[in-house]
């Protein structure tokens, strides 16, 4: 069975850069290792790639980037004007726009109509993406689809925090990410008692709008209990997918990012994710995160409507997500495909510290850590055909830590 997706005819660009003449390329928004995976996926297929970076420059060092530009300051409206002007002045009409950041995905979804006059937009319009953007809507969607999720409430003010009594530990988290700050960077703050919850709630209200502060049951367990369903869907129907387990993440308790992932077979994860995607009628790339609690119940955590950190595991597992998205957006027929289990992905620079902590804590044997390097393994940054990003990674990590800590 094959699926054919019709795409509007692309406008003829008025003045196409010499390097892209004859081949419509891709404009990738973002500069971290997620973007690097997209750049390599398309670049290896001969698709020209322009990269628009934010404060990350890792992907910009890839040999597969044809043109590098920095996004201007000024927020989403400034970025929107920049994109439209770029398309008109550089002859990028009909190129594919692929955002890899939350801000970029929100921008492309909210202004889908305007951007579609210039680009083939790689995320769905806001009508579909909003269900993933705001966790209050995400959990309402889960309720409708019959998918379990952690106990969650949005307090009107701090007097309502008493509702959490008897439910500790809990976490305080934002319903969405209006800006980068201590809370959105951490993803969530844990509270083990009422006093800590009050302090965390007050601090959260200083960083995000109070109505967007959620208090949620803390689902115990580390990365080994954390599963993801990654997919390319068309109008809610899954076309390509794989399921993975976060063997290690940083930090281990509330992971900001995966450090070591393995593809697995988990029918319950697949079943829940497929129901959510159908309810959203989602088109595009998506990662749906779940966690299994101590009672064995699988609970929805997040829906990420863009490429995710470890998506570059795809080609080794038989599912090259960015390239498949490209083909679908360009109206090509794509056969349904499911990823191979037992394939691993590692971001070595962040996984090594986590592995050492697990070894010191007696939760990981040295031989088990070394075993990971013997199986089918995709490294997040290093690639023999594109070595420069691996050389740039450590200095960039140090630079980002210094900037974020204000040194």
Notes on the protein architecture:
- The chain is α/β, with parallel strands linked by helices.
- The protein has three domains: 18-126, Rossmann fold, CATH 3.40.50.20; 151-217, ATP-grasp fold, A domain (Dna Ligase, domain 1, 2-Layer Sandwich); 223-405, ATP-grasp fold, B domain (D-amino Acid Aminotransferase, Chain A, domain 1, 2-Layer Sandwich).
- The chain is 35% helix and 22% strand.
- It has helices at 33-43, 75-90, 102-110, 112-115, 126-133, 135-145, 182-186, 194-207, 267-280, 314-317, 321-329, 348-360, 366-371, 388-405, and strands at 26-29, 49-53, 67-70, 95-99, 119-121, 152-153, 170-174, 189-191, 213-217, 226-234, 237-250, 257-264, 284-292, 298-304, 337-338, 344-346, 377-379.
- The strands form three sheets. Strands 10, 11, 12, 13, 14, 15, 16 and 17 form an eight-stranded mixed β-sheet that branches. It has a five-stranded parallel β-sheet with strand order 3-2-1-4-5.
- A hairpin with a 6-residue loop joins strand 11 (237-250) and strand 12 (257-264).
- The longest helix is centred in the C-terminal third of the chain and has 18 residues, at 388-405.
